[in-house]
Amino acid sequence: METLVLPAPAKLNLFLHITGRRADGYHELQSVFQFLDLHDVLSFTRISSIDIEFQCSDAQLDTPDNLVVRAAQLLQSYQRVAQGVRIILDKRLPYGGGLGGGSSDAATTLLALNQLWELNLTTDQLAELGLQLGADVPVFVRGHAAFAEGVGERLYPVQPTSPWYLVIDPRVHISTAELFQHSELKRDCVPLARETWQQQTTQNVFEPLVRQLYPEVAKALDWLVEYAPTRLTGTGACLFGAFESQELARAALARMPAQWNGFVARGLNESPVCQQLRQASTDNLTNQD
Ligand SMILES: C[C@](O)(CO)[C@H](O)COP(=O)(O)OP(=O)(O)OC[C@H]1O[C@@H](n2ccc(N)nc2=O)[C@H](O)[C@@H]1O
Ligand SMILES: Nc1ncnc2c1ncn2[C@@H]1O[C@H](COP(=O)(O)OP(=O)(O)OP(=O)(O)O)[C@@H](O)[C@H]1O
């Protein structure tokens, strides 16, 4: 029985600016995405029926509307695929906190099924399909750290430094939709040139609002900034500090107040899922020789 086992990494928004608003109410963003070496794990097994069977280690996400199931259904109907799959999601990433885990699971599903079902769709086609599932899906499909524009669909590969991060999940739920609608949200950032942006002169425009509305997140930001340059990722509530070494990040984690959840992870400019798929196809070619 053929089974593919693949990771789905988390992402950070190294900064997040809003440069305008589209007619449909969606916001034009500028951001830089970088991956983390922390990931969910998905396994994909071909089955004899055309069903999409799904199982998740987290009972709350073990539902038919999981992004993984929606990604598989989308691909199945787009290509009129007469094959099925059993997918098992080992959920390790905190969700709903700006780490993009759901989008990453969806992207890994598109990439995996393209291979398992032998569909031969291009990366551009998969990224376009992924955008229907969420704004953050295309960057995970493409697999390079990227400067993003539009709602996150115009992506340009970049090579930011890869520090060690201490990521804190303050265990607070934040509504992305509510923040995007807030009257005090800064929506007039001057567009940055992607060739010359510098982390120091950027911000996450949601941070002042999140500080005001969610005091626990403000507390975590104030705590972490004593150790390292600190930012919110996405619309929060997760935040990250950039450290020069794993040891320094771990030392800060050891002092972190117990009410928060924290982890240390390395920034990655290549997604491990794309690396693994490339490796698998090279192995296949070698085996055919
Ligand atoms: C903030 C980011 O995480 C940055 O990476 C993403 O842009 C958010 O993307 P996402 O989680 O897929 O967000 P969605 O679930 O699509 O959006 C939730 C809601 O936020 C608002 N929204 C979202 C993205 C965007 N560029 N403009 C918006 O105005 C919309 O009202 C939308 O209904
Ligand atoms: N496979 C999945 N993993 C996580 N969440 C999922 C998944 N499928 C559906 N969801 C739903 O999507 C919501 C957002 O999850 P996700 O982890 O993608 O958001 P996030 O970390 O806030 O990322 P973003 O930066 O895209 O806002 C969850 O609260 C959950 O209800």
Total DSSP helices: 9
What is the helical fraction, as a range of percent? Answer: 25-40%
Largest sheet: 10 strands, mixed
Shape: globular
- What does the average pLDDT come to? 95
Question: Any idea of the CATH class of the largest domain?
Answer: Alpha Beta
Oligomer: single chain
Tell me the strand percentage band: 25-35%
Please state the second-level CATH architecture of the largest domain: 2-Layer Sandwich
How do the helices and strands follow one another from N- to C-terminus?
EEEHEHHHEEEHHHEEHEH
How many distinct folded domains? 2
Catalytic activity: 4-CDP-2-C-methyl-D-erythritol + ATP = 4-CDP-2-C-methyl-D-erythritol 2-phosphate + ADP + H(+)
GO molecular function: 4-(cytidine 5'-diphospho)-2-C-methyl-D-erythritol kinase activity; ATP binding
InterPro entries: GHMP_kinase_C_dom, GHMP_kinase_C_sf, GHMP_kinase_N_dom, IspE, Ribosomal_Su5_D2-typ_SF, Ribsml_uS5_D2-typ_fold_subgr
Domain GHMP kinase N-terminal: 66-143
Name its key features.
ten-stranded mixed beta sheet, binds adenosine-5'-triphosphate, Alpha-Beta Plaits, about 290 residues, Ribosomal Protein S5, domain 2, 10 strands, alpha+beta, about 30% helix, binds 4-diphosphocytidyl-2-C-methyl-D-erythritol
